[in-house]
Amino acid sequence: MKIFWLTKAAERSLAKDEVEEFLAESLGAYLMSEGRLDSLVRAGARPARGHAEPVLCSDTVLAMTGPTFEHGLHGKPRFADLALRDVHFSISHTKGAAVVAFADREIGIDIERTSRFDKGEERLLGIARRFFADDELAYVVGEGQTTPTALRPPLHRGELASRFFEVWTGKEAYMKWTGRGFSEGFRTFSVFDVEPVIETFRGPEDIVCSVCGEGLDCHASLAMTVMECSQ
What we know:
Blueprint: E1 2-7, H1 16-33, H2 37-42, E2 45-48, E3 61-64, E4 69-71, E5 77-79, E6 88-94, E7 97-103, E8 107-113, H3 120-131, H4 134-140, H5 159-178, E9 198-202, E10 207-213, E11 217-218, E12 226-230
Antiparallel strand pairs: 1-7, 1-12, 2-3, 4-5, 6-7, 8-10, 9-10, 11-12
């Protein structure tokens, strides 16, 4: 599996065409890195400059002109082209950032900026109480199972929000992996008690990202343009 990500100015949202171009160029880079030039040609690739990192072999990367999509039973998108049917992907974007994962099996990914939800801790706690499972809520507020309440140190400033988004992005990534989306129901599962594994990364600035897939063993950082993960 490979994960590509991109950041722009945090104060502005990415335009639809920016997200589409990022997906297309990342797909081209992924297929090239996998030795899938035949798939690129059959799916109608074009040479592109100003492409998504990384640079592969030269300063020219084949990027998709605009892949076409179809949707599964619950609306999960997949590539419609027969040459790409074995390429699974998941994409997420937030204010000034986007991330996309490609793999040879089902994958789910989600990204958020914690500053995008500047609603205060009480507001986040209200959302957590409504949508999180009991053990997820306990994690967000810093409750442990073995430490008496009186002995628990208070959470550092901003830690509650960071934990909240670890859980939130994990739940989103899992629902994208299943392909059932919000029909799954946020409270019907806990990120601490599901298969497959969910990996969460904290990136630069205020970015939190979670990825869900079978057999993940990720050894990378969101600070990298491309995260290499083995499955």
